[in-house]
Amino acid sequence: MIIVLSDILTVLGLAILTIGVYGFVRMPDVYTQLHAASKAGFLGIVALLASTALHGDGAIITRAVLITVLLALTTPVAAHAIGRAAHRREEPMHISEAVDETVDDR
Known about the structure:
This protein is mainly alpha-helical and 106 residues long. It has one domain (2-88). The chain is 77% helix and 0% strand. It is built from 3 helices and no strands. The protein is elongated and about 50 Å long.
């Protein structure tokens, strides 16, 4: 039963990562590409780590949990930094009706 669950989590993680890559390629601007890459990357890796933790001993489970916590802390920060850099470079949004509601803090 654990092997089947592990296989399901592996396939789910790979599917999420594949959808994220497809979304990154298909999205029109840096802001939507960033969303696809960060969300799908985090969820796909966590599913693969959960699959790994099912097969491992205590040390492997501890490492998988620590990696998950590290990703949960760093992924949003990295996405925000990339989005802010794109905004400072005045990267255009794909939709012409998009309204920039940020305060100019340069």
